[in-house]
Amino acid sequence: MKIHQVGTEEAVASLHSSRSGLDQTEALRRLAEYGPNSVEALAGKPLWLVFIEEFSHFFALILWLAAGLAFFAESRQPGQGMSTLGYAILGVIAVNGLFSFWQQYRAEQAVTALQKLLPQYVKALRENKIALIPAADLVPGDIIALQEGDNVPADCRLIEAYSLRVNNATVTGESLPQARDALPSGEDETVHSRNVLLAGTSVVSGEGTAVVFATGMHSEFGKIAHLTQTAGDILSPLQKEIVRLSRIVAGLALGLGVLFFVIGQAMGLSFWDNFLFAIGIIVANVPEGLLPTVTLSLAMATQRMAKRNALIRHLPSVETLGAATVICTDKTGTLTQNRMEARALYLNGEHLSLADVHRRPDLAREHHRFFEDALLCHNLKQAIDNGRTHWLGDPMEVALVGMAKACLGTAIAYPKINEIPFDTDRKRLSTVHHTPQGAVLYCKGALETVLPLCDQVSLDGRLEPLHDDQRQRFQQAQETLAAQGLRVLAFAWRELGGEHSGQHLEEKLVLAGLAGLLDPPRPEVPAALQKCRTAGIKVIMVTGDHPHTAVAIGREIGLITGEHPVVVTGDRLRKLSKTQLQLALDSPEIVFARVAADQKMRIVEALKSKKEVVAVTGDGVNDAPALKLADIGIAMGVAGTDVAKEAADMILLDDNFASIVAAIEEGRSVFDNIRRFLTYILTSNIPELVPYLAFALLKIPLPLTIIQILAVDLGTDMIPALGLGAEKPDPATMTSPPRPRSDTLLNWRILMRAYLYLGTMEAVAAMAAFFYVLHGGGWRYGDFLADNAPLYLQATTACLGAIIVAQIANVFICKSPGRSLFAAPLLDNRLILWGIALEIGLILAIGYTPWGNRVFGTAPIGAEVWLFAAPFALGMVALEELRKRLTGSAAANRRAGASR
Length: 900
Prior knowledge:
- Keywords: ATP-binding, Cell membrane, Membrane, Nucleotide-binding, Translocase, Transmembrane, Transmembrane helix.
- The protein is an alpha+beta fold.
- Helices cover 50% and strands 17% of the residues.
- The protein folds into four domains: 3-34 and 113-230, Calcium-transporting ATPase, cytoplasmic transduction domain A, CATH 2.70.150.10; 310-337 and 522-655, HAD superfamily/HAD-like (Rossmann fold, 3-Layer(aba) Sandwich); 344-518, Calcium-transporting ATPase, cytoplasmic domain N (3-Layer(aba) Sandwich); 676-899, Calcium-transporting ATPase, transmembrane domain.
- It contains 34 helices and 26 strands.
- The strands form four sheets. Strands 10, 11, 14, 15, 16, 17, 18, 19 and 20 form a nine-stranded mixed beta sheet that branches. Strands 8-26-25-24-9-21-23-22 form an eight-stranded mixed beta sheet, with helices on both faces. Strands 1, 2, 3, 4, 5, 6 and 7 form a seven-stranded antiparallel beta sheet that branches.
- A hairpin with a 7-residue loop joins strand 14 and strand 15.
- Helix 30 packs antiparallel against helix 31.
């Protein structure tokens, strides 16, 4: 027999304890055996190893190789600027590695957050004396005392309980306080037993004594902590894409280097000249600015999301959210407001809303005893917080008091002179108050326990005998309200006259009516769910609450619209195989109710097996493992526990489900924006590469030096690229389905567009400007030019300037790849405009200041050179507009043909 299935004496004896508690010697022995009552951290990677990993991932290795090659080339041919390039690449590696390490370090704080939920001290019985001991010193067999407001420090079995109710939401996800007693339970699962209190929960009302049977990592709380710790880190889709992109870039750079080394050998170049030429090709094709641009672009997206109340903890999660195909959402505190509200009444034999009562003041007068009952029959306590008075205790009682005050229009304060407390057998509470009419007993509770005590009913303000047909109507009314997911309470009263106490107070009561209560949905949720539906995102409710309540809320918010949704309870989920679960998830409308933490993880795993990109929302400890396992975990910022926040990738600062939709919109734009600046950055590789090819193959002076390539990659290109990463979401973003997993950041279409189309046009402009200056200065093919010759310095400046002019045109081309520039807003992105201003400022500083001339090997050029380069940039725009018109016409023709 399990500890919750036996009597209290047997439960205590099974732990080799007694009602007087453990003696100090035995407590110390058990502490040494079972360990402290705290969450243990699993042995993870040491910080130094995590630090090293941030500098040794694949793209970092490519940059290390590029830097090494640059330093090697400098050692063979000093003075070519290769060492400057090497140091710049090392700086890029350092910035990215340190930033990523800091993000990783901040993300691994879930264990500390778990411990914050546990109380610091607890009242325990040691050697028949109450002692205040640290919660960490509790051991199995300890007898502890708990009362209203206490947090439960360990899993324990009640041996005494007086009107005890607990809030299990942070562990089980149940929204309503649960009554607890000390009687043996017939439940199979300890977590659902009425005589068990779980670590991490809190006592809402009443008091009790319990024997501890599980501490630390052996408690349900500890098991959830273990799941959170062992749920491995998952690479986001963006991280996978960066790895893939790194391999493509590495393969492309090395492939081109080897290819042109072979070509150089065939042309008879010396080995070392040819080898250094190949190094130049490789380095020119490694986009050093890619990782900083991606990182900074994601960081800027997180700032935009923060303004929309979505705080991103892990940068790659920005794009992951945009790729989400399924959202598994908790109910309590996420779709609902995590408070109780009276939603419906049954008075005078009819179902009423609160609005009906407010429209009909006669109801409040005729049924004043009903509203007095709701107002007075409770165990709440008043507290003052920042000068405001509020109620502490059961949220249902708080809701009833508020409802009664609103309906009565005044606060009645009749002194309480007696009470018959609530317990799990009685399922009701009765209080006696002194009123102007004498002593009156007010009673509320479950209809099945209140109805047998009544012999009269209040109808139209009159008291009539309670016949069988009336009893049936009340029972039918209860079923109707319960089917709506409401928690139903019955109210009754009796005028006692001078009798205040005795065994027969709860007799011959007047049945006053019923009230149905519900945790109300957030008002903005229905619209947010509709947006998800339009965007092709499936939303699945996963809750620890009752199935009826889950379905009722689902219908109210528009999550469920069909007649027969699939409802899977935790018991049924345990019996489903992985294949059966995946098939069940194909249902268009599915709700999971009464699920445990490990089961929520099963759901996430099944969805990921179906190749879905899964976002999971939650606020409790029970949600943390699934939050960490999901592609993106979303925690509530206001009502969420620290555990959930630390395990999540994103935190909703306002606990507003609608903020998820806004964040998804931002996330979807990130993928498109990264493609925009990827195209922009890769385009400049070709005008950087072609000068090297021309130098080696045509035996001409080198048109572009290494330091000038660096000026483009890590200087002039950086801010405009960031501007492309900060583009606002397209208005139509949330009207299309999520991008397929097969849709990659870099594909052949983008490579062809960047390298063979836009890049080729820029290379033509750069080489044309180079030769324009050379021929204008009298140079003829075959003439020797020294590296410091004024004409050569002007020609390389012209080449560099033409690239930058072309890139200014290119930033607008990449900004609007699908729409005509004349149909799209050009000046709405201030960062792009600042970037262009910076580009112009940098090239002027590089070309027209002594410092720029000395560092970058340049010389001032005349205005005619800029006028020569400008038509090339305008030609790029004209050709791009022609391409858009042709492709747009072809697409329109295809649509017209399909419609015919």
